[in-house]
Amino acid sequence: MNTELLNEISEKLQRGKAKDVSALVNQALEEGIAPDVILNDALVVGMNIVGEKFRSNEVFVPEVLVAARAMNAGLKILNPVLADAGVEPIGTAVICTVKGDMHDIGKNLVRMMIEGQGIKCVDLGVDAAPEAVVAAVKENNAQLVCLSALLTTTMGGQRDVIEALCEAGIRDTVRVMVGGAPVTKEWADDIGADCYTLDAASAAKEAKRLILEMKKG
Amino acid sequence: MSGVSIIWQGCKLNGSHDKPSPWGLRGESFRFYSNQTNHNNPPKTIHHKKGAPPAHSVPGANITMTNRERALNILHYKPYDRMPAVHFGYWPELLYEWAEQGKIPLALAQSWGDGNAADEELDRLIGWDFNWYRTAGAHTGLLPGFEHKVLEVLPDGTRRVQNGDGLIEKIRPGVTSIPSEDDYLLKDRAAFEELYKPKMQFSPARINYEYFKNFNETRRYDVPVGLHLGSVLGSIRSMVSVVGMSYLIYDEDEELFADIVDTFAEMQYQCAEEILATGAKFDFAHYWEDICYNSGPLLSPEIFNELCAKHYKKRNDLCHKYGIDIISLDCDGVTEKLLPTWYENGINTMFPIEIGTWGDQFEAARNKFGTGMRGVGGMDKTVLRRDKAAVDRELVRLRRLSALGGFIPCPDHRLMPGTKFELVQYYAEEIKKIK
Ligand code: B12
């Protein structure tokens, strides 16, 4: 297998070169490399490196955003091929920014990195009502719910979602992750969330762990 | 039309987290825009008293100081009689909450703006000495601004609106805070050269010369009054959103983002130069940047330094030439990585300081830069939503920080909904006891 090509895709992705990534993903497919190999050994590897560097402050938000744009360019080509080949995501997450809150940069980074772990993300956008989260969990048989809040005044919305999941009788079927600027581990414990992380790269790792745990039962 | 004929020094507080408005700035003036007006609303005219300051005599002490003297003495490590009780305004929702609870008249909630008559009335009711955010400046935004237009109304009533910055926002029905960003016009070299560059030039229409010529006679002398210097990166960030800024930094045209920053910064320098040349005297100067968040800067410190350092230096050197030696900056988050660029290029005061989930930043900055670094802020305003014991604990911390000198405690950013009126009164009373 052409590992050089896969490395090159990963490197271009890390440098945010979307056009190059598209061209190289096409080339890899033409060379007969399996789509899941391109996904896991090039795109995901590249995005994980960016995530780690972001976590350790070696790169910053712009570098992550341009890398994510490059990843998306690659995924646009790969997704239909992956679907044709019957490659399944490892699980499904519902992600949103909670009611009353319009901040979405952090939420989008978390989504991109979670997707980078091979998890399907149903993104409800910003200002998402608890009922909408409950409906999306049911509809997509999601194992994970990711809630972002950036305002002290909206973080209560994370608790509202957890309560709504309880009321709908599906709290046990999902794990709930919370994050955002005013959110702390204490807050997460307080509202009965399963997980809190400070940044998107850690969120992605935890998401994978939680989904695999859920699947094991 | 973006208000060319409007008097810029008016106070307008919409926009991204207290950024300078397209019509210029807040503070010491006759015209104010309330926090909730949007860019299209006409200015309200509110008159308030100006001129000779009432000196505050201090019972039992033989020094009589104005709040301005107190504040400036603290920031210059000179003796002062007591700590002034300063604040940085309110979320409008909080004032409506207080009005509903019968704590304040509804009219105050409706007309509040930094430093206006309603603000001063609230100061009296609460026991604050003054609102720190009292600045005047030029129109440092796009001139003329883009036409405000509704591009689309979505089925749920959300309107997609192009604002004066060329940013396309989604305004949801019933939401009064800053809308969410959807798209932006400044995407490439062509948009910059054709649409933006002409709007980023200096013109005398950016400055109300009449106002600044009379500034020294009409300004207040009992509170500090600052010159608003605009921003170097913040306003550009809010024209294109964080995402747009990121894409522009990494545009294929590698010079593009630097050209935008240089063009915009040069115009703002000229504005400051013109205002200072009128002879108007200021106690401090201030930048709005909002370029940090809870894990650090919104862009790499190296890129930031490369793009911005020279502009801070040029503007700050100009201030120094006119005797302004306190220069502050609003950052919005964890500043550690950008502080060296700011400090080395003349910014010597953190305002506000931002105490988020990461805790105090002032002491670390003081340890790193010494007494050259001052602060106004650093008060954990969340205690004002809790109870007296929490306020007391915060006061202990603030007393210790105040003892370091060059530090004036102030709730960081606006007091938010859920804040208890009586606790604010209590805090204002107690903070004045720091001597
Ligand atoms: C950019 C910004 C905006 C933009 C948002 C643009 C957008 N598309 O999101 C605009 C200008 C629209 C905006 C609006 C407002 N904002 Co604002 N905003 C910011 C700012 C400067 C940066 C936020 C950001 O994008 N950070 C970058 C991303 C990458 O970081 P992040 O979101 O924190 O996400 C990371 C982690 O938190 C974590 N994470 C995030 N979500 C999740 C979710 C999960 C599940 C997990 C595990 C992890 C996780 O991972 C991410 C990546 O590592 C912050 C400052 C700050 N200190 O945070 C203020 C800030 C959040 N805003 C604030 C305010 C007050 C407002 C307004 C109310 C202002 C107003 N007057 O209207 C409005 C609110 C509108 C609304 N109803 O939501 C305050 C909140 C204060 C408070 N205590 O509540 C802040 C803190 C500014 C301040 N210092 O006062 N804002």
Chain pair forming the biggest interface: A-B, 25 and 31 residues
Biggest β-sheet strands, sense, barrel of chain A: 5 strands, parallel
State which percent range the strand residues of chain A make up.
5-15%
Number of distinct helices of chain A: 9
Q: Percentage of helical residues of chain A?
A: 55-70%
Portion in helices of chain B:
25-40%
By DSSP (H or I, 4+ residues per run), the number of helices of chain B equals 14
Q: Which CATH architecture of the largest domain in chain A? A: 3-Layer(aba) Sandwich
Shape of chain A: globular
Q: Could you say how many structural domains of chain B there are in total?
A: 2
Compounds present? cobalamin
Oligomer: heterodimer
Strand content of chain B: 5-15%
For the secondary structure, the number of strands of chain A is 5
CATH architecture of the largest domain in chain B: Alpha-Beta Barrel
Question: Which shape of chain B, going by the Cα principal axes?
Answer: globular
Q: Rg of chain A from C-alpha positions?
A: 17 Å
Low-confidence stretches of chain A at least 5 residues in length (pLDDT < 50)?
A: none
Largest sheet of chain B: 7 strands, parallel
Name the CATH superfamily classification of the largest domain in chain A.
Answer: Cobalamin-binding domain
Report on the architecture of this protein.
The complex is a heterodimer of chains A (217) and B (435). In chain A, β1 (91-97), α5 (105-115) and β2 form a beta-alpha-beta unit. Chain A has 2 domains: 3-84, Methionine synthase domain (Methyltransferase, Methionine Synthase (B12-binding Domains), Chain A, domain 1); 91-216, Cobalamin-binding domain (Rossmann fold, 3-Layer(aba) Sandwich). Chain A has 9 helices and 5 strands; from the N terminus they run ααααβαβαβαβαβα. A 5-stranded parallel β-sheet of chain A has the order 2-1-3-4-5, with helices on both faces. Chain A has 217 residues and is of the alpha/beta class. Helix content of chain A is 59%, strand content 11%. In chain B, a hairpin with a 6-residue loop joins β3 (56-57) and β4. In chain B, α8 packs antiparallel against α9 and α13 (388-402) runs parallel beside α14 (421-431). Chain B is α/β, with parallel strands linked by helices. At the A-B interface, α4 of A face α8 and β15 of B. Cobalamin sits between chains A (61, 100-107, 109-110, 146-148, 150-153, 177-182, 197, 199-200, 203) and B (16-17, 177-178, 180-181, 241-242, 290, 293-294, 332-333, 354, 356, 413).
